[in-house]
Each structure stands twice: as structure tokens, then as C-alpha cells.
Design goal:
Blueprint: H1 6-15, E1 21-25, H2 37-48, E2 55-58, H3 72-76, H4 78-87, E3 92-96, E4 116-117, E5 120-124, E6 127-131, H5 143-152, H6 164-170, H7 172-181, H8 184-195, H9 198-215, E7 221-225, E8 232-233, E9 239-241, E10 254-259, E11 262-269, E12 272-275
Parallel strand pairs: 1-2, 2-3, 3-4, 6-7, 7-9
Antiparallel strand pairs: 1-10, 5-6, 8-9, 10-11, 11-12
Helix pairs in contact: 2-4
Bound molecules: manganese (II) ion.
Residues 61, 98-100, 133, 135, 227 line the site of manganese (II) ion (MN).
């Protein structure tokens, strides 16, 4: 990861941090058949020629280790990784781990050319821009479970049902371990959720994640997260979701751009970038 040079730090000191232009993108799910890798490659090409971008935040679930074997996935997507590493010559690049690529945390400090993080805060115009993938707000996600799912899936070319609820049902031993470490209220909530059909369960779960994300925002903070594949910027402009690059989502190929502490949502369609204020 590129460090700020002394020269850059001096410029920041004189001008403040208003000139930071941050792009956050998440949930590409490379390795999953519905991942729009081709569009993402074109998008990275656009970034390469955009000299105004200072920081790129890869906000988790960039590769999908729950659907493919965790080592092969980096080899088969070396073209995307090469482009990302190339961008590091022009801007700072951060990789915040998601639940489907949580294992990248373990790669930290081993000399890989990407800096892997659990979360990230960047200051912009006196605002703390906080970046998390969003699994933190999801009552079904736990670190040991996310890590084990990154390893338990052999190469199934994306046709495995990796719904977390279904996975919980399949792994009885994990399920009982899970239930033993969570509190009674959560047990009750999970039991309720398991009574719902898959569609209703998904909607309930997504609503819960968004609500919890909203409840954690601090004063003078903007929270950016992904995970739900439901892109939005809220009315008060202090909460934004980056969406996804999977074609199964109703709106996809989206990203959030932050300037002056304000998040804006954009969609990349064809080769055009359009702001989507109405989502
Ligand atoms: Mn996720």
C-alpha cells in the first residue's frame, strides 16, 4: 500500500483534507457466475484515467471465497488484481474485508501488494468517513463462521447454495456452537427468522442490517457500507450503501463517491457513469 509522501502530507496540512476524492465499491463477488467482472474491468480503466480520484476503497466481498476455492480465486482473477495494483501508482487503495472474503485479513503483513483491513476511517472536510463492509450489522455473521466458510467450499463454479441460513442448517455442529455463544434474545430472533420463507427472511434481514447501520452513526460521521446489495444514500447524507456488481441485484454496478464529506451514488452502465439520486 502506497504511503503518503512528506510532500503530500505538507499539501494536506496547508489545504486541509477537502481535496480528497474517495471512491468506494463493494460486492463484486468474483468467482460467482453473476459477477459482472467485464464491467468492473472497464470501470477500473475509467478510474485509471480519472486524475481527480485520490482514494479507492474496496469495501469487501470483492472475491467470493464461499463459492470458490480460496487460493484459485486470486489466480483466475489476476487480471482484476493487476489493474488494482496498477491503480496504486495513482491513488491510495484500501481493501476492507467482507464476510465472503474475510480470510484476506489473515494475509495482512505477509508481503502481498494490497493492504487488507477490517475497517477504515478517512477524514474529509472535518467529517469522519467510516467504511465497513456491513457484516458487523448482520445478526447471522460471526467471525469464526465467516472464516470457516472461506475454507469449507471446494471449487463448485458458483453453483453452490451459499445462503448463510442454508449453510447454518447444513452445518449442525457449527449451528449448535453458534447458538451456544449467542444470547437468548438473539436465539429467539433467529428462531423467528427461520420460520419465514426465504424471500421474507431476506427482506427482514436486510431491513435489520440497514437499521442497525443507521443506529451506529456518530456526530460528524458518514458511514459507508455494502453487504446488502441495496445501494442508497439517505436523506441526511450520512449513510450510504455501495450496492454490488452482481447482475442478480435489481440495481447493480454501483459505487459511492465522497467529496467534501458528502456521499453520492453512481451507476456504471455501458461505459457511462450516471448519478442515481433517486435510489
Ligand atoms: Mn457481504
Amino acid at each position: 500500500m502506497k504511503q503518503k509522501s512528506n510532500y503530500t502530507i505538507m499539501i494536506y496540512w496547508i489545504l486541509g483534507d477537502v481535496q480528497l476524492s474517495i471512491i468506494a465499491v463493494s460486492d463484486l463477488h468474483l468467482g460467482f457466475d453473476s459477477s459482472d467482472k467485464a464491467a468492473f474491468i472497464r470501470f477500473l480503466g475509467k478510474l485509471q484515467s480519472d486524475s481527480s480520484v485520490t482514494d479507492l476503497v474496496l469495501l469487501g466481498d470483492i472475491v467470493d471465497m464461499w463459492r470458490r476455492d480460496s487460493s484459485g480465486i486470486f489466480l483466475e482473477n489476476h487480471d482484476v488484481l493487476d489493474l488494482i495494483i496498477g491503480l496504486e501508482k495513482k491513488m491510495r487503495v484500501y481493501y476492507v474485508a467482507g464476510n465472503h472474503d474475510f480470510h484476506v485479513i489473515k494475509l495482512q503483513g505477509r508481503g502481498y501488494p494490497v493492504n487488507f483491513l477490517k475497517d477504515l476511517s478517512l477524514q474529509q472536510n472535518g467529517v469522519n468517513c467510516k467504511f465497513v463492509h456491513g457484516w458487523e450489522f448482520d445478526e447471522m455473521q460471526r467471525e469464526h463462521f465467516m472464516e470457516s466458510l472461506c475454507h469449507s467450499m471446494s471449487d463448485q463454479k458458483g453453483d453452490r447454495d451459499t445462503n448463510i441460513w442454508a449453510a447454518l442448517g447444513r452445518y449442525d455442529s457449527d449451528l449448535s456452537r453458534f447458538f451456544n455463544v449467542i444470547d437468548r434474545a438473539r436465539k429467539h430472533r433467529i428462531a423467528e427468522m427461520l420460520q419465514l420463507g426465504p424471500e421474507e427472511r431476506l427482506i427482514e434481514s436486510l431491513k435489520g442490517v440497514e437499521k442497525k447501520a443507521c443506529s451506529t452513526i456518530q456526530p460528524k460521521e458518514v458511514l459507508i457500507f455494502g453487504h446488502t446489495h441495496r445501494p442508497f444514500v439517505n436523506k441526511t447524507e450520512n449513510l450510504a450503501n455501495t450496492g454490488s456488481w452482481v447482475t442478480t441485484a435489481p440495481v447493480h454496478n454501483t459505487f459511492v463517491r465522497l467529496e467534501g464529506g458528502k456521499p453520492k451514488l453512481f451507476v456504471f452502465e455501458g461505459d457511462e457513469i450516471t448519478e442515481r439520486a433517486d435510489l
